Amino acid sequence: MMDFRKIANISVDCVVFGFDNININILLSRRMLNMHDLKYPVIDDWVLTGDHVFKSERLDESAVRIFKELTGFEDVYKKQFRTFGNPERIKNEKDLLWLKSKGVEARVMSVAYYFLLPAERVDLKNGDTKWFPLKNLPHLGFDHEEIIVRAFDDLKQKVMSEPVIFEFLPDKFTLNELQIAYESVLNTTIDNRNFRKKAICKSYIVPLDEKRVGSSKKPARLFMFSKDIYEKTSSKNSIISF
Amino acid sequence: MMDFRKIANISVDCVVFGFDNININILLSRRMLNMHDLKYPVIDDWVLTGDHVFKSERLDESAVRIFKELTGFEDVYKKQFRTFGNPERIKNEKDLLWLKSKGVEARVMSVAYYFLLPAERVDLKNGDTKWFPLKNLPHLGFDHEEIIVRAFDDLKQKVMSEPVIFEFLPDKFTLNELQIAYESVLNTTIDNRNFRKKAICKSYIVPLDEKRVGSSKKPARLFMFSKDIYEKTSSKNSIISF
DNA sequence: TCAAAAGTGTTAAGTGTACACCCATGA
DNA sequence: TCATGGGTGTACACTTAACACTTTTGA
Predict the structure, then answer these.
(1) Hey, what domains does chain A have and what are their CATH numbers?
(2) Which of A131, B84, B116, B239 could crosslink B167 through cysteines, CB 3.0-4.6 Å?
(3) What UniProt keywords apply to this chain's record, in alphabetical order (chains A, B) (predicted)?
């Protein structure tokens, strides 16, 4: 029943954010085009992973399919955050050359999603897929730098209003890991004592009787996030911006 | 240079929010299809205004064009908030009939925008365009109800983190008007004294030496919003959700 | 003179912020 | 035994929330 023909002018791009307990990283794919000489590719840079949407595929399905091919996972937090489709969005010579080599129309709408997960979960099979620190990205093809910037802006907003930060952490995490995740996304520093006080009194940040050993000197208590408790307790706090 | 041919499978839909000092309203267009008998249209309901994107048109341009045709204005706050493009999103018989009558493909991606303005600013020339209270919408064609719900969700978020509420008000407004705007969008009630205190001490809510007379018994002081001052003073308050 | 909306203060509770040292462990 | 990251408490400032009456005007 599925129609696997691709829609020529509609694609989905995936911005995969991975947290490695230090930084936020982006998963990128190598884009290489050889024409004359295998040793000197005409194009050799990095791009987000994306693909055209199938004729009978939902947008979310398409995003999940692309993400799964990339990482092997499907049940990962994702959000459709924006669609990029201006006619002039691909203007660079290399990008046009690339599209030509693929026989793709020049004007493509990209529905962009971002995904959040702990970077360690992803097995990088080969060198064609790599994590890059968000703060130190390589040269990117197409308008993918803009897409990433937009994704990160949206993420920051999201982190400030919903408990998506936990998507970056393993099921069991320490409070310091949580703190560093917040600091990385919001690009701030937080006072450790104040942070812990605040975190500990949230009922949905549940202390476990387990400690993480090995990774540091003193074993650190582990916590888990309970979505159930969160949904039951946190009444939408109506913070007016102004 | 502009290519005015329409892209068959890509459209823009506009959710126009208008505040009338009491409620949030949505601007809808009548959708009517006559086949056999002019007196008994096959379709007679309401939809968001939208159109297909031109071949050489930016998405934002397309949104502005549609909005301008509808209201006569162009410099109005707008936001692209989501793209709707699932294959099953149009499944209702009437909707399919409508598309057939227009010779349009069944699978169309709709890039959806919302606009904010005071409802009074819009001149409704004829009965084919009307404001409906958000809380009392008529039966809507396509998946436009879902689009509106999504738009409103996004708007609420936006209102809590940025000063977009002022887009709903005329340049000069009273504090009570501002309060009602907040109450309408966030669906709460706010204590009048506390609200005024908070508002008055914001430097970017500027008191004027003018009063609004006539509309009520006691003349009310007018205020204006200064975007300049807002941008200079309000350092992003890093409110962590949790 | 009255109806209707505008405008005004105080207090108590809670929340955020600044700040520096001891603890438990592995090497 | 020491180096490393884990973990803790207090005081002050600020913000929020609850609460009811007076003022000004047009009709």
Answers:
(1) 6-161 (3.90.79.10), 171-233 (1.10.10.10)
(2) B116
(3) Hydrolase
